Amino acid sequence: MAMDPVFLEIFKNRIQAISEEMASVVLRTGFTVFVKETADFGTFLLSPTGETFGSPVVTGVNLSLAIPGEGVVDAVPEWHEGDIVITNDPYATSGLSTHLADVWLVKPIFADGRIIAFGCCFVHSSDVGGKVPGSISPSSYDIFQEGVRIAPVKLYERGTLNEQILRVFLDNCRIPEQNWGDLRALMASLHTGERRLHELVARYGVAQVERGIEGLLAYAESQVRTMIREIPDGEYVFWDYLEGGAGGYPIRLRCRLVVAGDNILMDFEGTDPQVRAAFNLPSCNKQGHYMLVPTLVRYFRTLDPACPWNSGMVRPVSNHAPLGSLLNPEPPAACGVRAATFIRLMDVVIGALAQAQPDRLPAVGAGQACIVLLAMDDVRTGRHQVGVVQPICGGSGARPMRDGIDGMDFSVGYLRNVPAETLETDMPILIERYGLRPDSAGAGRYRGGCGIELTVRVFAPDTVMTARGMERMRFRPWGRLGGSPGENGTAVKNLGTADAAPTGRIDELLLQPGDAVTFLSQGGGGYGDPYERDADAVASDVRRGLVSPELAQAQYGVVIAEGRVDAAATRALRSGRAPRRSPFVFGPERDAFETVWSDAMQLALNRCLATHPLALRNYLKQRAMEEVDARAASRRPTPPEEVAALVRALYERMDGRAPAGLDGRAAARS
Amino acid sequence: MAARYRLGVDIGGTFTDVMVADEAGAVVATLKTPSVPGAPEEAIFTALRELRRADIATEDVALFVHGTTLGVNTLIERNGATTGLLVTRGLRDVLEIRRLRLENTTDFYGDKPLPLVPRDLVEEIDERLLSDGSVYRPLDPDQVRAAVRRLIAEGVTALAVCFMHAYKNPAHERQVRDLIRAEYPTLFVCASADLWPQQREYERCLVAVMNAYIGRRMAGYFRNLEAGAVTRGLRAQVLSTKSNGGVMSAARAADEPVQTLLSGPASGVIGAAHVARLAGAPGIVTVDMGGTSADVSVVVDGRAAYSTENQVGDFPVIMPAVDVSSIGAGGGSIAWLDAAGILKVGPRSAGADPGPACYGRGGTHPTVTDAYVHLGIIAPDRFLGGQMPLDPALAAAALADLGKGINLGSREIAQAILDVATSNMYAQFTPLMARKGVDPRDFTLLAYGGAGPTHAFLLAKEVGIGKVLIPPLPGTLCALGCIVADLRNDFVHTLYRSDHQTSDAALEEAFATLEGQGRQWLAEESAHEIPLESSFVLYSADMRYEGQAFEIEVAVPGEARGDRAAIARRFHEAYHAIFGVSDPRAPVTFVNLRASVVGVTAKVTRLQPPARRSAVPAAQTRSVFIDGQLRDATVVQRASLAPDGWVVGPAVLEQYDTTTFVPPGYRVRADAFGNLVGEAV
Question: Which of A257, A579, B33, B549 is 20 to 30 Å from A191 at the Cα level?
């Protein structure tokens, strides 16, 4: 390292202070719920070429490292002092924004007549227009439904507000006042950042500040390269699924992680095509994009908590997300709920890395952030109201040295809940139960975290419940190294009564007074053979009511008698079984699916879908899968090499004419 | 002979500090005695004995205020009572789930805090109230009895009770509380709404749980202290400091020890606020820097800032407390090199044992204190008045060893350690001030604690603060805070109604009820002849626009407490001040109504005992390595500092328990109260 090591640490502290101060300004003066409750905003300092050299770790969503800034930097032909650019469009910013609800501001910071940095920040606005209040709906199938779209444009030109642009933006939002309040908070934050950087320039000179910026990026880069060198070279392939794709089929995310020396490549070839829903993640395949790398940067910070938190961390990381895939959709793909996708992508990369360093990675957790909303007319006031009940996550995966976290997962660890007392005061409902879900955690030497159990009873007629982001209801959070998977998620209407019924994935559920819905969320996957779990730890879980005595015996081989471990019976039960060591334990549901849909089959299908028009891929995929499944059901398995022909046949059958069997009158009626 | 002394005692981890003032408001004695961790009251008895030798008789004490860290230590060290919890059915996991959010989402190995009550000691009770306070499911006393019997069989000695919506209707909680008190009199029991009737079940439940967890130990301690003090002649009531900077009777503290959790840092700030008021400094930022951390607070016009979002160890505390934030930087912070050879300072601290290398207790890692010693800022033979000589050779060796790693000499690395430590403080200090909406450059930095005066000017310079204030006895500010504290208690009522859903009369009635509770509290607490100069009640309301999810606290003048329109006006103004926008036509919601009752005690005006006139040594100089060169620094014994003569940095001012370092670019003088007043030149 060429940099003076003392100056670099001091400079790092100053830059960290500026980033945190910028975030503090937003937190204090930001207006919307997303700022106050979930801290869904970010503040950054970018180098002149668009790398993030300053990003807060205390305040904000702690996620947005490695912002691809160059898309915006290049999109503006000429930057002047006093300019502030506004944008929210993923496609026009090459993935700086990843859904329209994130409104970004970018400001050049000048010294000695040249740009030394950009201040940059965003806030998740509670509404930017579009088809539904809040702008985000899983069922949106193009970006035009998701709100007003602003390509990078100067909101301020040399310090003067462009009122027409502001007007166009605010006129297309349902909450113009709040959005304007948030924009002002962001601008105050940018001014703070600019002032502080100027102070640094005054103290150290431009050249030294510029060297410091590059020095910080290089410092993080060298720390991470050291860690990557410790990862054995090789190719590590892993995949996992989102649920609820076309035809009810899962949507696959696949990663081939290549470690070579001190570099990492994430190749997402084999990931499913973009979907006709809002799950697309518009990374624009920017290298080290912040929504592709969260597992890597968290892993590096886990190993070295003092590693500087900047884009230098991802300089050794490259990625390939095929155009037209879920991770690099073509416009106008909708992307409002891309959070579900990057949460699952985190699991995929954990699975890939875990093959390289088995004893350092956790099993995976619930992997969902399900947001439950209720809409009803309050019988007391007659007022129509809509309220969030709770964000529902679930247990985290077990770690190589300890159990998973009960009720909470790292991928969405920034979420907060709402006090039940407040909910009941705001809405005519009763929170009958809100707690941990016993027997949900994946068993293991270290067990996963328990899922969540939430029962809501409603009192108002015609109450409508929606729940977006329900995932892992079919494929469980997987266990590692012999650890069992956690229970998958489910929801039941009127549990414990005669007409109890599972709800499935909830889109809209109509409820009447007295109805109750119980959410049972996923437990995290276990780590290591459950028979190797300390018997006293099992007894403690039994005593605390998190594991039933039956499960203790069946899964852990621990016999509990009168609240204590029956040592002799346990020894007898545990002896004689071969140790379980399989790297991943997915559970019967995924295993069954993949007996037909092996990696080779899915790759074959993907490869030939890519040769067909983008707009048809979802349809063709669904039809092909139905066809293959139908054949499999009648014991006619389809080999991978026949998939292409099958898809071609499907395509040729739908060349714009009415399918056979549909006559003219029927077509006219539809 | 009438009782006339006011006695303040601050029990710290290492030392117990005592300050005595007379009826004229002059500090007449201070003393320091080693703390006795197992029996903190013993240090107080030792102090009483020593004071008697100095002709300060225990019988003559009119006001006895003391602060103890026993409660907070019990919580942090997790050695409180085996505590059980009774909750409404369905909410057994209220302590496990907390508010969901993880402290650190980037650490795959991180954990959430372990609950104070394990899940098997939480019992669900079949009872339920609705949000309007009405009964949805009645309480079954027999089920309560069965639950309590089971918990006792499990070894529980303290019980907390928290039922849904008890802030609205405490009947079920009280029924259970009274039943337990009647049938199991040896159990320590407390109910959430008795302690803090605010909506939010997790935080309110925690108040009760923390109270039960530390309650038995604290009650025992106060009993021993009161009994011991009485046999030693004390006639005054024993008072305890509180997290809100006020004081309460020991009897109350034994019932509600949760109110003492943040009292230590709070007293320091109350002492600092008093010093600032006397010195005429309108806005101060206080920095109390010790061995492992520095506590920071903001005081405007002599009034401490309050917060309802405080943290004790792993847990949030929603009762109002003096707003103190901790930043990880102290004299014991350890310097080290990371894998890339970058110099880091902290967050690990050498603490008091083994302590810095120069303590000679086996510490080999260089710390910030070693850097002070090696650079010539601290004189090794005058540490703690010479009672604890430091070994400069050990400091030099540890520094040289570290410096080798990056080719720096021992002096260069020592300087680098201070620079990095200062930038660490800057990195935490600046965003903190931004969150409070404060530009520290408009403020005076008031430093105390062992290392505060040593580092204050370095921090001031880094942040751009022009004025620094060091009180006469920086090590005893908490004891001063005990003496000058007022009787103070806070009350809350969750209203949760929008302006169109409530009436002026309802507000007036709710505030009047809070006032009544406050006046009654004050009457009870001052029944034992605590001399009060005056008393008043402060009102405020947590308010928001209807439908919003966060509140701001709005001060409510007493004459406007029954006037929705007037209070709403103040809300719009306060909102505009923070957010730059407001909507005066929009409906507003009154979430919580608050009242604080204050009984004002007499104040101290002379901050230190008269100096014993010994031979005043002439000012000396010694070499201090600073900004890359050796400089001759003026060395002054603080006691001999002439009023109104400026001492220009570099300078070192020495006194018994701390050293003030004035770098080049600043100068200091003593003011009429004995404070050091520093300013940038």
Answer: B549
Task: Report the pLDDT value the prediction gives residue B555, as an integer from 0 to 100.
Answer: 94
Q: Does position A668 have pLDDT exceeding 60, yes or no?
A: no
B107:A431 CB<8 A: no
The pLDDT tens digits of the residues spanning A343-385 come to 999 999 999 999 999 999 999 999 999 989 899 987 777 778 8
pLDDT at residue A1 greater than cutoff 50: no
8 Å CB contact between A136 and A108: no
Contacts of residue A218, defined as CB under 8 A and 6 or more positions apart, other chains included, come to A1, A3, A312
Going by their DSSP bridges, the two strands B552-556 and B534-545 should be labelled as: antiparallel
A555-569 tens-digit pLDDT:
999 999 988 999 999
**Is there a contact between B546 and B588 (Cβ–Cβ < 8 Å)?**
yes
DSSP B168-207: T--HHHHHHHHHHHHH-TTSEEEEHHHH---S-HHHHHHH
State if pTM tops 0.80.
yes
Strands B651-655 and B629-637, by their bridges, are parallel
Q: Does residue A122 sit in helix, strand or coil?
A: strand
Helix axes B452-463, B410-436, angle to 10 degrees: 70
Residues A96, A77: Cα–Cα separation, whole Å = 17
Distance from CA of A417 to the nearest CA of B (A): 5
| C-alpha triplet A38, A44, A49: angle, nearest 5° | 145
Alpha carbon of residue A254 to chain centroid: 15
Q: CB distance from A495 to chain B under 8 Å?
A: no
In angstroms, the CA B355 to CA B359 distance is 6
Instruction: Please give the backbone phi and psi of residue B185, each rounded to the nearest 5 degrees, phi first.
Output: -65, -15
Q: Is A452 on the interface with B (CB under 8 A)?
A: yes
CB B539 within 8 A of CB B557: yes
| pLDDT score for B1 | 44
User: Is-contact A509 A527, C-beta < 8 A?
Assistant: no
Q: Which residue has the tokens 């300013």?
A: B679
Say if A514 is an interface residue toward chain B (CB within 8 Å): no
Strands of B238-241's sheet, edge to edge? B27-34, B15-21, B5-11, B61-68, B238-241, B247-249, B487-498, B588-600, B534-545, B552-556
pLDDT at A195: 93
CB atoms within 10 A of CB B280: 10
- Which residue, B647, B625, B623, B644, is CA-closest to B636? B647
Whose structure tokens read 């902290």?
A: B346
Mean pLDDT of A146-169: 96
**Res A410: pLDDT:** 86
Q: In this structure, what token pair is assigned to residue A115? A: 């740009």
Domains of chain A, residue spans: 5-223, 362-529+580-584, 597-653
Distance, CA of B256 to CA of B190 (rounded, Å): 9
First to last CA, chain B: 52
> Dmax over Cα atoms in chain B, in whole Å?
80
Cα dihedral sign, A373-A379-A383-A384 = positive
Task: Give the residue from A219, A364, A421 with the most B CB atoms within 10 Å of its CB, the best one to mutate.
Answer: A421
Looking at the predicted complex, does its ipTM rise above 0.90? yes
Q: Is A79 on the interface with B (CB under 8 A)?
A: no
The low-confidence residues of chain B, meaning pLDDT below 70, are 1-3, 527-528, 612-619, 644
Spatial separation of the C-alpha atoms in residues B180 and B161, rounded to whole Å: 11
Contact A425 B496 (CB under 8 A): yes
Joined together, the tokens standing for residue A71 give: 């898309």
Alpha carbons B428 and B31: distance in angstroms, whole number: 34
Q: Do B434 and A24 touch (CB under 8 A)?
A: yes
